[in-house]
């Protein structure tokens, strides 16, 4: 798997035709599998006895066209974008941080406990800033063990981060039930942050301003990775760790930095979700966004802007799918089936494309 | 050194296997050029040659991994096509490769059972019994139920030999079999080979250690740059004294001939006039599982080229990496321009002017997917000239790349082309451009022409000369003796992690270096 995506070279006037061909090629390799995936998913729906057109109609209607649906979609994007940013930093640096769920949930729980506690004592903007920083710090803290093990002992981070996720999710659960329990409710959950104290909404809509935080984060991450010396160092470590050593880069320090940034962004996602949308955490709440976003950033080839598009598409599918599920009796997680089929289709397209290229056109 | 008597009992009139003028070409290289070789029953036939001499290709053709482009392989006098390893086994040619081909987690018997038909249950008891028989016959002892991973490398080799015999091999090819063994293990293997040939087998023993060739072999063939340059027959081997044989083999292995003509990059170097020491290394010791370094002392003056000759894998890589800072030192000093640098990190040593042109061009020298322009700055990422406050300045980066590409004649479609798409020669030119530009003081070249074609070899050697002429201190590590002789002012010979001798590059240098390399002289 190549981690390095080719950034498109500048187009000169004389190269317009190849540029056009390249764009057509890009469309062919993106749109064709997308259509194929929708068709195949439709086939599965038909087998389940559901009219695929009705399902897709509902998804588009509820996720994209209706104002409330679009607002829900936009709000859903916020944590997903932050997690996508978290994954892009790590994956581009060749570090497979799959511990996003633990980092996310633990940050969410601690922020959920801190926000109502702070809200009486500090002005609202300060509470929110503190919560965002706290969430990022908790996320980063939860990656210290995998980071140190990877940097100095070269222990496989896929295993350690996944293990830390199990621990993190369980610890979050325990914290909600034992430490941060709201005594006024019967369901085990943390105290609720008043709606008025949450992240402000954008303009006259219900869209949380978390969306802006997510967009800024992912664009910033994209620019850092592609345009700065720091990002280049991380990409060198990711693309060829031995070359990084040969070139004299401080590989262990960079590794720790990658873990810290990546996990902080995952933690920030948790904080944004709490102070933006949820307001509290129930003991059984675990949206598992972390692993859901992994295929999306792969589809986007770790490109920040493409990730925004895929996160948007996924949010439409997921918000629309939730309402279509209620209406048509399709399981809620059918969205994941669509994404999985899309991933397979894109994989096949890529394989065919490479074979064609190897055959010398 | 013992001279084994030649067993004549199994001598028949024809060899078991004959290679007749086999030639094998790879893109840009002739790996074997009309090589003829006879493998007689009752003989240990030693194939001697440096790395790249064509030994591995020859074995590949015997064991069915490669097929010759021209020429023929005769088994029992009949021409055969050996196109798969299974076919080779069928014809009775078994091969034991340098790196053990056994599954460490399975027992010896299970390993031997591998390769049977998939549907049948292996008869482990039967295999163990047959194994015991074969073992008794050749005088080795192996516990059939021990997991392979718990055996020593020598024992694993014995298992492979037993396995080959159980499959009915009459010809046994041992590829660099002693490379991984202790001296005692090598002795035992030598004794085993003698017992095997006493039973009428033909053994092919590949090595680059001259003393082993003399101790174990009945017949010695020497390969050099893909050609068989000589053969010492059993009668001559028994008739001549070891000293005479040694001299002859050294001459064959390292002697000057037409094979390497055409790579010379210019006239002979002027004798080095002397200069201030730039790079001083003393008492260097490095821990390493394979080849630890000990007591390495080396001083290189400005404008001087010190060649490091030696058979590959004798600590050259460890030495280069230790000096460049890629490996921790156990002991020793490294001074650059009189200032200690041993405690400095790689990047800081680079900034002080220490350059290392690695031989692993794609593995560590470059990031294949990155453009040429960034690869040319790989060791300067973040430099203020090209990154303003950490932000990439694409103009200066591209200008820098275009300048170096033109100056060092790197043939590339553009500076944005991923460097992995260039040919080996052009990647090497880019590496030379990166390391030799800027404020260099001392340069270590590791196998700078390895795998290049004649034209690029010449260009690389010219760069090395020019570097020295500019007043840089140059260390040239090479396994190509011609190259070392052509370029160096002095030649250090490295063997088993030590510098075993330092020779001034005069008329007698070739022979003396050759002797030091093969472990004859001490």
TrEMBL record, chain A:
The keyword Transmembrane applies. It comes from Siculibacillus lacustris. It holds the Pfam family BPD_transp_2. CDD domains: TM_PBP1_transp_TpRbsC_like. One of its GO terms (cellular component) is plasma membrane. The chain crosses the membrane at residues 26-56, 77-96, 102-118, 125-149, 161-181, 202-225, 254-276, 288-314, 334-352. It is a multi-pass membrane protein. One of its GO terms (molecular function) is transmembrane transporter activity. This is ABC transporter permease. The keyword GTP-binding does not apply. It comes from the Bacteria.
Automatic annotation (TrEMBL), chain B:
It comes from the Bacteria. The keyword Nucleotide-binding applies. Residues 17-250, 276-521 form the ABC transporter domain. One of its GO terms (molecular function) is ATP binding. InterPro entries: AAA+_ATPase (IPR003593), ABC_carbohydrate_import_ATPase (IPR050107), ABC_transporter-like_ATP-bd (IPR003439), ABC_transporter-like_CS (IPR017871), P-loop_NTPase (IPR027417). Keywords: ATP-binding, Nucleotide-binding. SUPFAM superfamilies: P-loop containing nucleoside triphosphate hydrolases. Belongs to the ABC transporter superfamily. This is ABC transporter ATP-binding protein.
């Amino acid at each position: 798997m190549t981690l390095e995506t080719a950034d498109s070279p500048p187009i000169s006037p004389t190269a317009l035709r190849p540029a056009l061909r390249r764009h057509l090629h890009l469309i062919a390799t993106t749109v064709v599998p997308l259509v194929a995936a929708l068709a195949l998913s439709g086939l599965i729906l038909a087998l389940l006895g559901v009219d695929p057109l009705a399902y897709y109609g509902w998804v588009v209607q509820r996720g994209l066209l209706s104002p409330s649906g679009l607002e829900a979609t936009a709000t859903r994007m916020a944590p997903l974008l932050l997690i996508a940013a978290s994954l892009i930093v790590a994956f581009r640096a060749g570090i497979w941080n799959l511990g996003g769920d633990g980092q996310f949930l633990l940050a969410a729980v601690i922020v959920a406990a801190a926000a109502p506690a702070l809200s009486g004592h500090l002005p609202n903007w300060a509470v929110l800033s503190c919560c965002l920083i706290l969430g990022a710090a908790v996320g980063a803290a939860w990656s210290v063990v995998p980071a140190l093990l990877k940097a100095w002992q070269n222990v496989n981070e896929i295993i350690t981060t996944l293990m830390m996720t199990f621990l993190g999710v369980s610890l979050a659960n325990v914290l909600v039930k034992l430490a941060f329990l709201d005594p006024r409710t019967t369901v085990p959950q943390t105290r609720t942050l008043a709606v008025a104290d949450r992240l402000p909404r954008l303009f006259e809509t219900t869209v949380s301003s978390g969306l802006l935080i997510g967009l800024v984060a992912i664009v910033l991450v994209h620019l850092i990775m592609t345009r700065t010396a720091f990002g280049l160092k991380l990409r060198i470590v990711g693309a060829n760790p031995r070359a990084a050593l040969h070139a004299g880069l401080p590989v262990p320090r960079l590794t720790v930095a990658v873990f810290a940034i990546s996990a902080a962004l995952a933690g920030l996602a948790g904080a944004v979700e709490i102070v933006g949308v949820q307001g509290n955490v129930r003991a059984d709440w675990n949206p598992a966004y972390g692993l859901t976003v992994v295929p999306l950033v792969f589809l986007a080839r770790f490109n920040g802007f493409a990730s925004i598009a895929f996160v948007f598409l996924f949010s439409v599918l997921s918000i629309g799918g939730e309402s279509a599920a209620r209406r048509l009796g399709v399981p809620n997680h059918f969205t994941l089936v669509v994404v999985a089929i899309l991933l397979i289709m894109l994989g096949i397209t890529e394989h065919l494309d490479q074979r064609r290229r190897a055959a010398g056109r | 050194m013992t001279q084994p008597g030649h067993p004549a009992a199994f001598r028949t009139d024809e060899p078991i296997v004959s290679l007749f003028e086999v030639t094998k070409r790879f893109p840009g290289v002739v790996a074997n050029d009309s090589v003829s070789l006879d493998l007689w029953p009752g003989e240990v036939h030693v194939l001697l040659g440096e790395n790249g001499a064509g030994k591995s290709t020859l074995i590949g053709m015997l064991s069915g991994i490669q097929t010759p482009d021209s020429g023929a392989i005769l088994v029992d006098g009949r021409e055969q096509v050996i196109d798969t390893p299974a076919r080779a086994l069928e014809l009775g040619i078994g091969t034991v490769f340098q790196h053990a081909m056994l599954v460490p987690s399975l027992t010896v018997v299970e390993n031997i059972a591998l390769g049977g038909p998939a549907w049948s249950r292996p008869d482990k008891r039967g295999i163990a019994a047959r194994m015991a028989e074969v073992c008794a016959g050749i005088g080795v002892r192996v516990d059939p139920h021990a997991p392979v991973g718990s055996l020593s490398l020598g024992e694993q080799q014995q298992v492979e030999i037993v396995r080959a015999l159980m499959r009915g091999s009459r010809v046994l090819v041992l590829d660099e079999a002693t490379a991984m063994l202790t001296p005692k293990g090598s002795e035992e293997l030598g004794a085993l080979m003698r017992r095997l040939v006493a039973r009428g087998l033909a053994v092919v023993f590949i090595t680059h250690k001259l003393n082993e060739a003399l101790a174990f072999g009945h017949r010695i063939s020497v390969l050099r740059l893909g050609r068989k340059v000589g053969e010492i027959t059993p009668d001559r081997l028994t008739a001549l004294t070891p000293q005479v044989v040694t001299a002859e083999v050294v001459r064959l292995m390292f002697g000057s001939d037409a094979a390497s003509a055409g790579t010379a990059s210019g006239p002979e170097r002027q004798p080095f006039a002397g200069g201030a020491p730039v790079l001083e290394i003393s008492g260097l010791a490095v821990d390493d599982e394979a080849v630890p370094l000990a007591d390495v002392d080396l001083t290189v003056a400005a404008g001087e080229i010190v060649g490091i000759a030696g058979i590959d894998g004798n600590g050259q890589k460890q030495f280069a990496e230790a000096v460049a800072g890629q490996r921790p030192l156990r002991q020793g000093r490294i001074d650059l321009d009189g200032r200690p640098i041993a405690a400095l990190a790689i990047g800081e040593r680079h900034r002080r002017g220490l350059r290392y042109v690695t031989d692993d061009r794609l593995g560590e020298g470059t990031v294949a997917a990155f453009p040429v322009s960034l690869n040319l700055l790989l060791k300067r990422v973040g430099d203020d000239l090209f990154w303003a406050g950490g932000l990439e300045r694409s103009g200066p980066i591209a200008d820098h790349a275009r300048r170096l590409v033109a100056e060092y004649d790197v043939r590339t479609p553009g500076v944005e082309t991923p460097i992995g798409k260039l040919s080996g020669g052009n990647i090497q030119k880019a590496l030379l451009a990166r390391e030799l530009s800027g404020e260099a003081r001392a340069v270590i070249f590791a196998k700078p022409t390895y795998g290049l074609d004649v034209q690029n070899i010449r260009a690389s050697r010219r760069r090395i000369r020019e570097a020295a002429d500019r007043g840089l201190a140059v260390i040239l590590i090479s396994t190509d003796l011609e190259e070392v002789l052509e370029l160096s002012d002095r030649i250090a010979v490295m063997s088993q992690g030590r510098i075993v001798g330092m020779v001034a590059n005069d008329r007698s240098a070739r022979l003396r270096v050759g002797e030091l390399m093969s472990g004859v002289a001490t």
